[in-house]
Amino acid sequence: MASKSQHNASKTKSLNGKAESQGQWGRAWEVDWFSLASIIFLLLFAPFIVYYFIMACDQYSCSLTTPALDIATGRASLADIWAKTPPVTAKAAQLYTLWVSFQVLLYSWLPDFCHKFLPGYVGGVQEGAITPAGVVNKYEVNGLQAWLITHLLWFLNAYLLTWFSPTIIFDNWIPLLWCANILGYAVSTFAMIKGYLFPTNAEDCKFTGNFFYNFMMGIEFNPRIGKWFDFKLFFNGRPGIVAWTLINLSFAAKQQELYGHVTNSMILVNILQAIYVLDFFWNETWYLKTIDICHDHFGWYLGWGDCVWLPYLYTLQGLYLVYHPVHLSTPNAVGILLLGLVGYYIFRMTNHQKDLFRRTDGRCLIWGKKPKAIECSYTSADGQKHRTKLLVSGFWGVARHFNYTGDLMGSLAYCLACGGGHLLPYFYIIYMTILLTHRCLRDEHRCANKYGRDWERYTAAVPYRLLPGIF
Ligand code: NDP
Q: What are the TM regions of this chain, as residue ranges (predicted)?
């Protein structure tokens, strides 16, 4: 009932232009045809896109074009390809259940102790950003601890206990894909039903009246079970991101098993991606203030995306290197490492500058100087006026999303580590460019609605989004 009345409230607001533009942020209230068509396309085809990539590696040595050509020319049929695809197995189902249950356990039952002894690390109970309805949620930030324990156990097993082979993930890669899909769809469906029937906070739900859009982009802003189990924080970080580095380690172990050594390209991919993952967990508290947590509702986009898209497509470089053990020359390896590290530095420093600026309310130094800012005001759904500032110094004065630029440089480095033999490992940089450009536009649309004239003053002061002088 509560959700129904919220639905009506949202309609009234969307008819009142001012209230809608100033009072709301997050995903759309009304769905245009293009968005609807894109959503239906993704709901129908995204699982097949993931399957196509993984199957191409399994059956066609990672060639993206050969399967399509084989089907087009009649050399193979869909039925042939499907017949060669490993089905879900009891072993994979057990493995996956154990994996997710273990991560749930680490997330829900083990309060953070890392912040007690790691200098500079912020973990334990932390507050998120204020929601559109004016709620401030508390989170138990213990992702770094979960990552450390999981990896400690992984290495203990690999070098001491030998309960299972470190190649276990690679060896069950396709059967595990089916399990990940089952969880991804189950959690998104549950989130949808929960949004209608028993939302955690009815005031923070959004109903567009379009079933597909609601399913994909989510209804509830912060669905929770009990006081602490937060769907967004759990699914965004674990099991997908904790798994990312384990998956890479399993691919490295497979290379060792197949060729008797691990290539420098595989080591580079493992190191660069591990830096990114560790950075994510080290900064999990900061992450509570990013778009995923602050603005996105929890639906299929996050639920299925975190269970399937992320662990399967973000790890394509390592998978590719199992089939193609690329040996990089020393200058190439050093160049790629530098690109990855510089990209990471820009990504981290840009994020850090905004975080520092917002935390200290501008009372800090950026590049050795007092930062310049634009004063802004906005109104939340409860009608309250708030004031904030937009930074125009440091990397935020170079471009409006220079953190994305750094992220893209790092992403390019992973792909370049795979050499130039195939397109498949370059999917990541293509996808990230589309994702971050779209995210940039989506975020700016939201900020323009939220801040109105103040946002125009900001875009006049910092005219470019990603690359000064170009875009
Ligand atoms: P940002 O961290 O850039 O956050 C954008 C928000 O910051 C805006 O909505 C606005 O929020 C605020 N803001 C914008 N400009 C300014 C400014 N000049 N000064 C102060 N605040 C400002 O974006 P994301 O949350 O998208 O990304 C966080 C990081 O995560 C990025 O580095 C990105 O590269 C990475 N990322 C990685 C992905 C992956 O799949 N690997 C996917 C997505 C992101 P407010 O309403 O508070 O003003």
A: 33-54, 144-164, 176-197, 298-316, 328-347, 411-436
Helix (H/G/I), strand (E/B), else coil: 446: helix
Helices H / strands E in the chain, number of each: 24, 6
What are the distances in angstroms from CA 147 to CA 143, 240, 246, 317, 445?
A: 6, 11, 10, 21, 35
Please report the DSSP string for 75-111 in residue order. SS-HHHHHHTS----HHHHHHHHHHHHHHHHHHHH--
CA 23, chain centre distance (Å): 27
Contact call for residues 307 and 191 (beta carbons, < 8 A): no
302 in contact with ligand 1, CB cutoff 6 A: no
Pick the atom of ligand 1 nearest to 357's CA: 20
Calpha distance 141→107 (Å, rounded): 8
- pTM, whole model, 2 decimals? 0.88
The answer to whether the beta carbons of residues 380 and 23 sit under 8 Å apart is: yes
Q: How far apart are CA 213 and CA 207, in angstroms?
A: 9
Hey, which residues does 366 pair with through a beta bridge? 369
| Token pair of 137 as six digits | 């949620």
Question: How does pLDDT run across 227-277, given as a tens digit for each residue?
Answer: 889 999 999 888 899 999 999 999 999 999 999 999 999 999 999 999 999
**Is the Cβ atom of 230 under 6 angstroms away from ligand 1?**
no
DSSP per residue, 372-421? PEEEEEEE-TTS-EEEEEEE-STHHHH-TTHHHHHHHHHHHHHHHTTTTS
Residues 220, 200 contacting (CB under 8 angstroms): yes
C-alpha angle 192-450-438 in degrees, rounded to nearest 5: 65
pLDDT in tens, 138-174: 999 999 999 999 999 999 999 999 999 999 999 999 9
Cis peptide before 239 (omega within 30 of 0): yes
Does 396 sit in the ligand 1 pocket, CB within 6 Å?
yes
Written as one string, the DSSP assignment of 130-199 is EPTTS-EEEEEE-HHHHHHHHHHHHHHIIIII-SS-TTHHHHTHHHHHHHHHHHHHHHHHHHHHHHHHS-
